[in-house]
Amino acid sequence: MSRIQNAFSRLKAEGRQALIPYITAGDPTPAATVGLMHALVQGGADIIELGVPFTDPSADGPVIQRAAERALAHGTSLRKVIAMVAEFRQTNVETPVVLMGYANPVEAMGYEAFAAAAQAAGIDGLLTVDLPPEEASERVAVLKRFGIAPIFLLAPTTPASRAQAVAKLADGYVYYVSLKGVTGAANLDVANVAAKLTELRQHIQLPIGVGFGIRDAESARAVAAVADAVVIGSRIVQEVENGETGLAERLTNFLSGVRAAMDTARA
Amino acid sequence: MLEYVKQMAENMSYNFPDQSGHYGQFGGIYVAETLIPALDELRLEYEKAMQDPDFLAEFHHELKHYVGRPSPLYHARRWSELLGGAQIYLKREDLNHTGAHKVNNTIGQALLARRMGKKRVIAETGAGQHGVASATVAARYGLECVVYMGSEDVARQAPNVFRMKLLGATVVPVSSGSKTLKDAMNEAMRDWVTNVDSTYYIIGTCAGPHPYPQLVRDFQSVIGEECKVQCAEQLGRQPDAVVACVGGGSNAIGIFYPYIDVPGVRLIGVEAGGDGVETGRHAAPLTTHARPGVLHGQRVNLMQDENGQIIDTHSISAGLDYPGVGPEHCYLNEIKRAEYVAANDDEALAAFHDLCRYEGIIPALESSHALAHACKMAPTMSRDQIIVVNLSGRGDKDIPTIARLDGIEL
Ligand SMILES: Cc1ncc(COP(=O)(O)O)c(C=O)c1O
Predict the structure, then answer these.
(1) CA–CA separation, B180 vs A65, rounded Å?
(2) R_g of chain B computed on alpha carbons
(3) Residues of chain B with pLDDT > 70: what percent?
(4) Ligand 1: centre distance to CA B184 (Å)
(5) Is the pLDDT of residue B289 over 80?
(6) Does B84 score more than 90 pLDDT?
(7) pLDDT confidence of A265, banded at 50, 70, 90?
């Protein structure tokens, strides 16, 4: 079983949902990233989504755009992000790490080279925002050959027919984007999300995580009541932007609060 | 009207894009999931519109009565004589309403938006010509219009910014990234993903996810179709070469496309050489053999570093300041049906001044790149040979830039 499958089956046995925080690798500095990943685990992260910065993050709001600019200013590249995960793995062999970003850095490295390096570093999945199923099949085959789970997005606009197409390609979990918008938007409607997940579950057997618009313990608990995983991005990156002093501890504390709220979700 | 596009597609051996929106290895639909259904809807609606005589008649009517088409094919006799070689003819897209070829496309897309019941349109713009053309048709059809423009371009294209405001559009300066066209496009995509139900995104060039490169080409093909007829009538034959500037490539594909299956006509796209392609400060992905990559929903030749990050571009003309180029140009380059070269800032400026002085025409700085290449080619050719240059726009918007270069504040 893969690390991602392990995580979800353990949680399922415990009746809990996965907490998946996102940070951009290299933000605020490349040297800080591995420490922040450990801090997230300490706060209760079940899976880490590690952002690969890109010059043109057209699906991200201002907070994650700025994180990418900071990371790029420090020379963060896909190869360096892979090396960060390898370093993280020296002391954590359990927590799945999914890289999240845009297609071009992976295209530039080449899927074969990327997948081999990612596997060697202990990376578990890849989510490329701008690689829909239409363009994905050959690339996904390469990823799977190296044991890297291709994580796909589903959206409020996704019809059932597409959910089936995604189900054929996806592995690990799928990521439901809770709203029409960019990361960091704040108009989450949990009733809508619940209805859509019921529909999607008719076609998708994998666990479904929900992200976009989850900002605090309250919204995390509401989403955890209907989803298999809760993804928190901009709110955490905002914390990074607020300054380096005590950052690891602030992240741990923030996540612990979220974790506690989630664990009461279906009590 | 677009009858001809259909007929051509039927008669041509060249038939792209394929079913999935690819031009060989280029093109495609690399966007976030949220936008895929919107692109599917657009593709279906576009296919229906192309079969609908009323849609085609209205498009044709607007081009004639609102834009003022056909645009003349004009013999630049004095300039040709000065250069002492081939005869240069100018396809006068600068005489269109709003002053550039961009309006051919915005009319087509605004009519599509109206068909689809969208009340709000958004656009990205570099030089501001596409923004003006979008604001214009929005006013004409009663649509709300928001235009995204890099903050650097807002500064260097002030007259067009004010023009858009006069036309009732909201201009949003974009100060992320390199603050130019590509960043404006990022921001437009963010708006679209947020307002996808109410909003139609009018992309200004033959780039972006399928079906945009195709529909922009089809709407712009009126340029080449007219040119073919005019050459037959005025010259009794087709030209030896057709030259057009290439930013995303819409004016170029508009004049090239009808010639793809015509043997003996060289098709030459001119990219922005900036300070010179050897300096790295340019916007010439095809000339410099940039590797294919993925940006803005498409796989195209892309200016990028070894880590796949997009490189900042440099050009005196805001409209050519783009690190990629439409997928069909990448394909035409790969199969060698079209050639791509670059003209530097100073070469474009020299051609700009030539056209002012010798022909009484103030060209856009973008179009001046095509003129600059014609200027290099003509003396190497004989007097009975013919070059058609697509004069994609007029230069009024560039006057402050030119004045500044001469040390004059207007
Ligand atoms: C006059 C003119 N020509 C050319 C261009 C470049 O666009 P394209 O390559 O799509 O024709 C622009 C873009 O703003 C323009 O304003």
Answers:
(1) 16
(2) 19
(3) 98
(4) 15
(5) yes
(6) yes
(7) low
What pLDDT, on the 0 to 100 scale, is given for residue B1?
45
Structural domain contains residue A181: yes
Test A58 with B36 for CB contact under 8 angstroms. Answer: no
Is residue B343 predicted with pLDDT exceeding 50? Answer: yes
Please list the helix, strand and coil fractions of chain A in percent, rounded to the nearest 5, in that order.
50, 15, 35
- Give the structural domain span for A11: 3-262
How many C-beta atoms lie closer than 10 Å to residue A69's C-beta? Answer: 16
Quick: pLDDT tens for A210-233. Answer: 999 999 999 999 999 999 999 999
- Computed on alpha carbons and rounded to an integer, the radius of gyration of chain A in Å comes to 17
Say what the ipTM of the complex is: 0.96
Is residue B82's pLDDT more than 90?
yes
Query: What is the torsional sign of CA A175, A21, A256, A178?
Result: negative
Per the domain annotation, does A267 fall within a domain? no
Measured by CA distance, the residue closest to atom 15 of ligand 1 is B319
Whether A188 is in a domain gets the answer: yes
How far does chain B reach from its first CA to its final CA, in angstroms? Answer: 43
Question: B37 vs chain A: nearest CA distance in angstroms?
Answer: 7
Percent of chain A at pLDDT above 70? 99
Q: Is the C-beta atom of B251 inside 6 A of ligand 1?
A: yes
Over residues B173-195, the mean pLDDT reads 95
Q: How far is CA B314 from the centre of its chain?
A: 18
Could you say which of B102, B118, B228, B397 is catalytic? B102
Residues from chain A contacting residue B20 (CB–CB below 8 Å): 134
Total domains present in chain A: 1
Mean pLDDT throughout A34-52?
Answer: 98
Catalytic site includes residue B48: no
One-letter amino acid at B346 equals: D
Residue given tokens 């420490």 in the structure block? A35
Tokens of B140: 């004409």
Q: Give the number of other Cβ atoms within 10 Å of residue A227's Cβ.
A: 25
CATH of the domain at A103: 3.20.20.70
Q: CA A126 to CA A234: how far, in whole Å?
A: 19
- The residues, any chain, with a CB within 8 Å of residue A126's CB and separated by 6 or more, are A98, A99, A100, A106, A114, A118, A143, A148, A149, A150, A151
Residue A141 pLDDT = 98
Measured in degrees and rounded to the nearest 5, phi and psi for residue A59 equal -110, 5
Task: Tell me if B309 and A105 make a contact (CB, 8 A cut-off).
Answer: yes
Q: Exposure pattern of A82-121 as b/e (b: 16+ CB <10 Å)?
A: bbbbbebbeebeebbbbbbbbbbbbbbbebeebbebbbeb
CB-ligand 1 contact for B96 (6 Å cutoff): no
B18, B19, B34: best to mutate for the A interface, most A CBs within 10 A: B34
Residue nearest to atom 5 of ligand 1 (CA): B319
Can you tell me the mean pLDDT for A68-84?
A: 98
How many whole angstroms from its chain centre is CA B212? 12
Structure tokens at A46: 């079940």
Contact A181 B189 (CB under 8 A): no
Q: Which residue has the tokens 């960060």?
A: A84
| Rounded Cα–Cα distance for residues B293 and A215 (Å) | 34
**Residue A44 falls inside a structural domain:** yes
Distance, in angstroms, between A43 CA and closest chain B CA? 30
Dist. CA A238–CA B59, nearest whole Å:
48
Tokens linked to B28: 């495609």
Confirm if A239 and A247 have CB atoms less than 8 A apart. yes
d(CA A140, CA A144): 6
- In chain B, the residue whose alpha carbon lies closest to the alpha carbon of A182 is B190
Cα separation, B259 vs B232, in Å, equals 13
